[in-house]
Amino acid sequence: MTWKTAHRSFYYQTAPEPADPVLLPGKVALLVIDVQNTYLETANPNADPAEAARWAPFNARLRETVIPNIARLMDAFRDRGLDVLFARIACQLETGRDRSLSQRKPGWNNLILPKDGHASQIVPELAPRGDEIVVTKTTDSALTGTNLRLILTNLGITHVVCTGIFTDQCVSSTVRSLADESFDVIVVSDACAAGTMALHERELEVLNMIYCTVMRSDELLSYLSELRD
After folding, report:
1. Could you tell me which residues come within 8 angstroms of residue 52 by beta carbon, excluding any fewer than 6 positions away?
2. Is 172 helix (H, G, I), strand (E, B) or coil?
3. Which residue, 15, 87, 108, 189, has most beta carbons within 10 Å?
């Protein structure tokens, strides 16, 4: 099964296969969403053992699959002179009062990540280089409350390749916002993760063929290799 037939929801089970994406130099950018230190620390050995065990599959996927695949994509984009951008969730105030409501409701999402703290920084393996653009958001969507839409427009970007965490939260919100702004979006399935694989797969099915195209990293890289003027 290829990306053209995978991740089909009820709405698209009988739809024809989509056309190949047309990726042009200077028109396609990679966006890395919320791969930050705090999410690598859910496996903290000092945490509650039951909670650490619950998060163990996510941590394994993040370290063994998602981060290596994002790094591979970053290398491919940089080698071709294509833009690599980053979004991270962080608050401007130490108290977190500036966060959106969705980030302040009781529960797991209620994280206070001051912008200058270690926890809110992008993981070292995926650190931005030189003047690569990083936007800081207090919302799920990387477009809401930032100037990312304007930046992408000014750069002449038409296609945005989305990677990162969490598939069913900040990645999904960003993808929907980008689609609403008429960007063509590609989500790389093995460069994203949700809390569970079931949540990850379900969200890809919901997003695919209406808000984005879902494909694996090797499939995307095959299109990048054919990138032409």
Report:
1. 42, 43, 44, 45
2. helix
3. 87
Per-residue pLDDT at 99:
85
Among 144, 146, 195, 139, smallest CA distance to 167 is for 195
Whole-angstrom Cα distance, residue 213 to residue 152? 19
Say if residues 89 and 171 touch (Cβ distance below 8 Å). no
- Residue 156: Cβ-neighbour burial (10 angstroms; 0-12, 13-18, 19+): exposed
CATH class, domain 24-224, is alpha beta
Q: Find residue 134's DSSP bridge partners.
A: 86
Query: Do you find a cis peptide bond into 77, omega within 30 degrees of 0?
Result: no
**Structure tokens that stand for 59 in this block:** 């941590």
44: Cα within 13 Å, side-chain hemisphere: 9
Average pLDDT, the chain: 93
Question: In this structure, what are the phi and psi dihedrals at residue 193, rounded to the nearest 5 degrees?
Answer: -150, 150
pLDDT in tens, 55-102: 999 999 999 999 999 999 999 999 999 999 999 999 899 988 988 888
Give me the pLDDT at residue 228, please: 55
Q: What is the pLDDT of residue 46?
A: 63
